[in-house]
Amino acid sequence: MNLQWIVLFTWKKVTFASGEEATALLKRKANFKNQNNSLLASWKPSSDACSDWYGVQCTNGRINRLNITNASVFATLYDFPCTNGRINRLNITNASVFATLYDFPFSSLPFIEYLNLSMHNLSSNIPPEIGNLTNLVYLDLKMNQISGTIPSQISSIVKLQILRTFDNHLNGPIPREIGYLRFLTKLSLGRNFLNGSIPASLGNLNDLSYLYLNENQLGPNSYELGNLKNFNHLELSDNQLSGPIPSELGNLKNLNDMLLSNNEIIGSIPSSIGNLRNLQYLFLGDNNLTEEIPSPFCNLTSLKFLHLSRNNLKGKILQCLGNIRGLQSVMMSHNNLSGELPLSICNLTSLQSLDLCRNNLIGAIPQCFGNMSGHL
C-alpha cells in the first residue's frame, strides 16, 4: 500500500508544471496584442500547464516544450518566458511573429535543444550570442528575412545536428567554422546570397547526409566533398561553381541525388560517377560539359531522372541506357549528340519525358514510341 502511494505521488510530481514557469507564461501572454487568440484560451491560472495548456509539454515538473504553431500571435520573441532557463523545446513556426532575432534572449536559454523559428517575418542579422545555445540539436530559421553573415560563433553549438537557414537574405562566405560541427547531419543554406568557395572544412562532417546550398553565388573554386561517405543528397544548383566535376564525388556511394545544374562547370563527366549505384536524380544541365557520356553511366541502375540538357556533350547516346529500366525522365537537348537513337530506348517502359531536341541525331524515330505509355 505504501509503495503504491509513493508511485502515485511521484507521478503527480511529474505531471504539474512549476508555479514559476506557469506564472511566467501567463505574464508574457498578457503582453500579446491579440488577447482574443482562441488557441491560447486554455492558458489559465486555474488549469494545469502541463496537461491543459495548448502547445506546452513538460518533463519532471518543468516545461520543456512550447508549441504554438499557427496561433497568429503578435508579439516579439522577447515576450516569451525564457529567463528561467528550463525550456528545452520551442516551436513557433508559422505563427506570424514580427520581430528581430536580437529580440530573442539566447543567453537565457542554456538548456534549449530544439528551436524552430521558421516561416515568420524575423529580420536582422543572426546575433553572435546564438553561440551560447551549446545544447542545441535542432535550429530552423528558414523562410524569414534574416540578413548579414553567418556568425563564426555558430561553431560553439557543438551538439547541432540540423541547421536550416533556407530562403533568407544571408550574404558573405560560408564560415569554415561550420566544419567544426561534427554531429551535423543536415545543412540547408539554400536561397540566400552566400558567396565565395565552399569551405574545405565541410569535408570533416562525416555524419552529413543532406547538403543544400542551391541558389546562392558560390564559386568559382571547386569543392571537396568526396570524403562524406554518408551523403544522400547533394544540391548545389544555381550557383557560380566552375572547374571540372571532381572525380572524388564517385566515392559517395550512398548518394541518391546529385544536383549541379545551372553553374559554370567545365570538362567531361567523370567515369567515377558510375560508382553511384544508388543514384536516382542526376541533374547536370546548363553547364559547359564536353566530351562523350562515359560508358560507366550504364552502372546507374537506380537512376530515374537524368538531365544533361544545355551542355556541349558529343558522341552517341549510349546503347546500354535502355537497360536502366526505372528511368522516368531523360533530358539531353541542346548538345552535340550524334548518330541514331538506340532501339534499346524502347525498353524504358517507365519513361514519361524524353527531350533530345537541338542535337545532331539522324535516322528514324523507333516505331515502339507509339506503344509507350509515358508522356513522350
From TrEMBL:
InterPro entries: Leu-rich_rpt (IPR001611), Leu-rich_rpt_4 (IPR025875), Leu-rich_rpt_typical-subtyp (IPR003591), LRR_dom_sf (IPR032675), LRR_N_plant-typ (IPR013210). SUPFAM superfamilies: L domain-like. This is Leucine-rich repeat-containing N-terminal plant-type domain-containing protein. It holds the Pfam family LRRNT_2. Residues 1-17 form the signal peptide. Residues 20-59 form the Leucine-rich repeat-containing N-terminal plant-type domain. It comes from the Eukaryota.
